[in-house]
Design brief:
Layout: E1 2-7, H1 11-21, E2 26-33, H2 38-45, E3 50-52, H3 58-63, E4 70-71, H4 72-77, E5 81-84, H5 90-100, E6 105-107, E7 118-120, H6 122-132, E8 136-139, H7 142-158, E9 160-170, E10 186-187, H8 196-200, E11 209-216, E12 222-230, H9 236-244, E13 249-252, H10 261-270, E14 281-284, E15 289-291, E16 294-301, H11 307-319, H12 324-335
Parallel strand pairs: 1-2, 1-5, 2-3, 3-4, 5-6, 6-8, 7-8, 9-11, 13-14
Antiparallel strand pairs: 9-12, 10-11, 12-16, 14-16, 15-16
Helix pairs in contact: 1-11, 6-11, 11-12
The chain binds nicotinamide-adenine-dinucleotide.
The site of nicotinamide-adenine-dinucleotide (NAD) has 25 residues, from α1.
Length: 357
């Protein structure tokens, strides 16, 4: 069993903790919190051992009625790998602590690429990370993960001459009451390219990709408007079939009645997904259009969820010799990654005079 600790139990940390706990070959040793708040209580109720991220604050946990099993150094001494899910920049400050304890570490995409020896996306860089025998690996951000998953099969099947992506990013996560914008759509950054294109190249080095990004007052998902100039001229149906063969991509059937992030999240909750999480890129079948060598499509990425299976695979890439395909399969099976819809492209369409009219 791979013994795993999670340092930082927020949006990403809580999800990675659940994903690790669900793996047949992993044991979640514990999670850290900086203070005994609602999330600490929820973790305890899930049966996770709690460690004080800051040793001096252990008394605060005791006072609040939350038992702690120790502090961060105790957790590090009890694990084979730590997953750092702290806010951007804090991970970089933690690296030396992990090194002191001789514990390999997985970092998140909010850190600069140089926080780690290698960047990771399961679809593109599992073997490279394994070969690098890295002690520190960075799982790329939610947007970069989504783009790597989408572009890798296109590059393999048709070759990519140039990819251009406009990212409409969510202003904040649902729980981030202090984030924005509130009533605007803001170029972020106003300069082009945004950092996402170069970040894609940390896991897919040979693909020419430019990105531009805006921030919108929504919390559910990011939206990508994608244009890829291919080296071949496939039909739109062939591209849809290619994507349908990728379990971490969900091709939303035309006629499913899913018109945006709101209904995607509703569908995820209706399907019983924990926290309404969508681990897959969600791309609209009818948006896939090929004109000459130009491919166009729209996809959505659930920022809180798509990196979660990637973290699990990153752990196996670092500390086991499980082959890439087997790891991905194991992760997918344990979590239930892969959306199978009963509605095919030719399936039911939405009657405009429906029962709810
Ligand atoms: P978050 O703020 O929701 O969670 C971070 C947690 O770490 C909080 O619970 C915070 O209290 C805790 N923390 C702060 N300082 C700490 C310390 N010194 N030691 C231990 N815990 C500490 O942040 P998040 O959204 O989960 O982001 C974590 C990382 O994941 C960032 O690098 C971020 O860029 C990346 N990421 C976030 C998203 C997203 O959409 N939320 C998506 C992909 C990647």
């Amino acid at each position: 069993m791979i013994r795993v600790g999670i340092n930082g139990y927020g949006t990403i940390g809580k999800r990675v903790a659940d994903a690790v706990a669900a793996q047949p070959d992993m044991r979640l040793v514990g999670v850290t919190k900086t203070r005994p708040n609602y999330a600490a209580e929820a973790a305890l109720r899930r049966g996770y051992d709690m460690y004080a991220a800051i040793a001096d604050r252990a008394d605060e946990f005791d006072a609040a009625g939350i038992d702690v099993a120790g502090s961060l150094p105790d957790l590090l001494d009890a694990v084979d790998v730590v997953v750092d899910c702290c806010p951007s920049g804090v991970g970089a400050r933690n690296r030396s602590t992990y090194e002191t304890h001789g514990v390999p570490a997985v970092f998140q995409g909010g850190e600069d690429a140089d926080v780690a020896d290698a960047s990771f996306a399961a679809r593109t860089s599992f073997e490279a990370v394994r070969d690098a025998a890295a002690d520190a690996v960075r799982v790329v951000s939610c947007n970069t993960t989504g783009l790597a998953r989408l572009l890798a099969p296109l590059e393999e099947a048709y070759g990519i001459e140039k990819a251009r992506v406009t990212l409409i990013r969510r202003g904040g996560d649902p729980g981030e009451t202090d984030r924005g914008p509130i009533n605007d759509v803001v170029p972020d950054p106003a300069t082009i390219p945004s950092h996402h294109g170069p970040d894609v190249n940390t896991v897919l080095p040979d693909v020419d990709v430019d990105t531009a990004a805006l921030k919108a007052p929504v919390t559910a998902m990011h939206t990508h408007s994608v244009n890829v100039t291919l080296r071949a001229t496939p039909t739109a149906d062939a591209v849809r079939d290619l994507f349908a063969g990728e379990r971490r991509l969900f091709v939303i059937p035309e006629g499913a009645g899913i018109d945006g992030a709101g209904k995607l999240k509703e569908y995820a909750m209706d399907r019983g997904r924990p926290r309404g999480d969508l681990w897959e890129n969600c791309l609209w079948a009818e948006s896939v259009e090929v004109s000459g060598r130009d491919l166009y499509l729209f996809e959505n990425v659930h920022q809180e969820a798509d990196v979660v299976p990637e973290n699990v695979d990153a752990i196996r890439a670092m500390v086991t010799d499980v082959p890439a395909a087997e790891s991905v399969e194991r992760t997918n099976e344990a979590l239930g990654v892969g959306v199978e819809s009963l509605l095919s492209d030719d399936g039911q369409t939405c009657d405009p005079i429906a029962a709810d009219d």
